[in-house]
Amino acid sequence: MYKKIFLSLLLIPFLMKAQEVTGNFSVSPTKISYNYLVNIPENTSDKKPLIIFLHGAGERGTDIQKVKVHGPLKYIKNNTLDAYILAPQCPENMMWDTDVLYKLIQETIKKYNIDTTKIHLTGLSMGGWGTWNLAFEHPEMFASVVPICGFVDRIPMLDACKLKDTPIQIYHGLLDDVVDVFYATEIYKRLKRCNANANLTIFADANHDSWSRVYDNPEVYTWMFQQQKK
């Protein structure tokens, strides 16, 4: 009996570590390589949602722990989310490559017990820009999209209604001096012509960091999990 208890105690750290997986993913011929972290929910017997989180420019590099500084991985340090979380890391001096991201997501879906009708995409700053671009290239994939203080490229701005069927929550700070709030308000105007499920929240007192109050609030995750691809 004591031997079984002792062995169980020894296994606890390994079981905890098994909830987090890191790796490296590359796509040829681009030779772009992303480190990534996958957080695995406690119960994987049933299909679970997937949250994809794209970090900002400050978390680029080779230290994968940087992806925990903001966003859902910061939130689960003191809370739980019954979902897989995929957080790729963009290399230093590079921007998000949507082709590599898409293929990494596909690979993640193959590996884990993910509900493909509940895939949610979010990102901040440079990751908000990546969120817009990836969502516009693959609108069929995402049950919801949550871009925060992200720049919007010309093509997504002109073709906003490509996301007419996707629930979207846009967040930005009114005082943002890094990415002008214009991008959030302008794409919101264009989306509202065709998407009744597009919403914009502007924080009147926020500068570029409009993400902390979003990701630290359980309401954004509750909203995500209520969305599902038909």
Structural class: alpha/beta
User: How many angstroms does the end-to-end distance come to?
Assistant: 51 Å
Q: What's the story with the biggest beta sheet? A: 8 strands, mixed
Number of domains: 1
Please give the count of helices: 8
Based on DSSP secondary structure assignment, what is the total number of beta strands? 8
CATH architectural arrangement: 3-Layer(aba) Sandwich
What oligomeric state do these chains adopt?
Answer: single chain
CATH topology (fold) name: Rossmann fold
Please state the average pLDDT score. 92
Q: What is the CATH first-level class name?
A: Alpha Beta
Strand order of the largest sheet: 1-2-4-3-5-6-7-8
**Secondary-structure element order, N to C:** HEEEHEHEHEHEHEHH
Helix content: 25-40%
| Shape by Cα distribution | globular
Question: Care to describe what's here?
Answer:
The protein has 230 residues and is of the alpha/beta class. The protein has a single domain (16-226), classed as 3-Layer(aba) Sandwich (Rossmann fold), CATH 3.40.50. It is 33% helix and 25% strand. The chain contains eight helices and eight strands; from the N terminus they run αβββαβαβαβαβαβαα. It has helices at residues 2-17, 72-75, 98-111, 126-137, 154-158, 182-192, 212-215, 218-226; strands at 20-27, 32-39, 48-54, 84-89, 114-124, 144-148, 168-173, 198-203. An eight-stranded mixed β-sheet has the order 1-2-4-3-5-6-7-8, covered by helices on one side. Helix 2 (72-75) links the parallel strand 3 (48-54) and strand 4. The protein is globular. 39% of the residues are buried. The model is unreliable at 1-18 (pLDDT under 50).
